[in-house]
Amino acid sequence: MIKLKSNIKPTDALALLFIGTLWGINWPAVKFLLTSIEPLTMRAISFTAAAFMLAIIARLLNQSLHLPKSEALPTLLTGLFLIFGFNGLTTFGQLIVEASKATIIAYTMPSFTAILAAVYLRERIKFNVVVGLIISMFGLSILALEGVSSSISNPTGPILMLLAALSWAIANVGLKSREWALKPLPLTMWFFIFSSLAIWPLVFIFEPITTQTWPNKMAIWVLLFHILGPMITCYIVWSFLAAKLPTTTTTISILIAPVVGVMSSAWLLEEALNWQKFIALVAIVLSISFVTLTSGSKAK
C-alpha cells in the first residue's frame, strides 16, 4: 500500500499540490500579461501590491512587522533572490521563449537547491531524493532537446531561465540557513518590500509610466489573479513549508508547477504539446511521486 512519507503530512502534500498548481497556471498568465504590460512595470505593480496586502493581513492577525536590525541584511538578500531575481529573470526569459519551455527550464532548480543545501546546510541527500532528481532531470533534458538548434543560436532565453532557477535555489537555501525572528507572513512581506524598492527605479529609467498605455480589462483581471494567487497566497504557503520541510523535498515536490504550466500553456496559449513535452511531464510526475510517496510507510 502506498502512503505518504513519514516526514510529509497529508496537509503538507496538499499544500504543495495547491501552490504547484497556481504557480503552474501563472506561467501562461504572465506570458499573456506581457502582451499588454511592460515587464518591469508588471513586476513592480505586483511586488508593491503584494507587500501592501501582506502587511494588512499580518496586522489583522496581530503579527509584528518589525524587522530586527540583525536580520535586515539576510532578509534583503533572501528577498532579492526569491522575489526580485527569480520573477525578474523569468519575466524576461518568457519574452524570448514560449511559456511551456520557460517553465521546464526554470524548474531545473531542484538540482541547484540539492547541491547548495548539501554544501551550505549539510543537509543529507537521501536515496529517494537522488532518484527523484535523476528522473526529473531526465524529463527536463528530453524537453530541452526540443528546438535545441534555436537554443544554441540564441541562448539568451534559456540562460535567463537557468539563472532564475539558481536565484530561487539560493533563496530557498537562505530561508533554511537560519531561525528567523519574524513569522513567515511578515517575513514574506519584507521580501516583497525590498524587491519593490529594487525594481521601481528600473521602471522609471527604462519604462517611464507616461509612455505606457492602460492595459485592457482582461489583462487587469489576469493581473489580479497573478497578484492574489501566485504572488501572495503561494509565497505565504511556500514560506511556511520551506521553514519545516527539508529543502530538497520542498523544491522537488513543487515540480507539479511545470506539469501544470506546460498543460495550461498548451490549452490557454495553444502551444504545441509534442512527445518531448509528454515524456518530460511523465518523468516529472514520477519524480514527485517517488519523493513524496513510498511503499509501506506510515504517515504521521
Notes on the structure:
With 300 residues, the protein is mainly alpha-helical. Strands 1-2 form a two-stranded antiparallel sheet. α1 packs parallel to α12, α2 crosses α10 and α5 packs antiparallel against α11.
Fold topology:
Blueprint: E1 2-4, H1 10-33, H2 39-60, H3 72-94, H4 99-106, H5 109-120, H6 127-144, H7 148-153, H8 156-176, H9 184-206, H10 217-244, H11 247-253, H12 256-268, H13 275-292, E2 293-295
Antiparallel strand pairs: 1-2
Helix pairs in contact: 1-4, 1-10, 1-12, 2-3, 2-9, 2-10, 3-8, 3-9, 4-8, 4-12, 5-8, 5-11, 6-13, 12-13
Describe, in short, the structure shown:
This protein is an all-alpha fold and 300 residues long. Helices cover 74% and strands 2% of the residues.
* Shape by Cα distribution: globular
Low-confidence stretches: 1-6, 294-300
The number of distinct helices, counting runs of at least 4 residues, comes to 13
Termini separation comes to 15 Å
Compute the CA-based radius of gyration. Answer: 19 Å
Task: Identify the strand order in the major beta sheet.
Answer: 1-2
Strand content: under 5%
Order of helices and strands: EHHHHHHHHHHHHHE
Q: What is the number of E strands?
A: 2
Q: Number of folding domains?
A: 1
Largest beta-sheet details: 2 strands, antiparallel
Estimate percent helicity: over 70%
Give the integer mean of the pLDDT values: 83
The helix-and-strand class reads mainly alpha
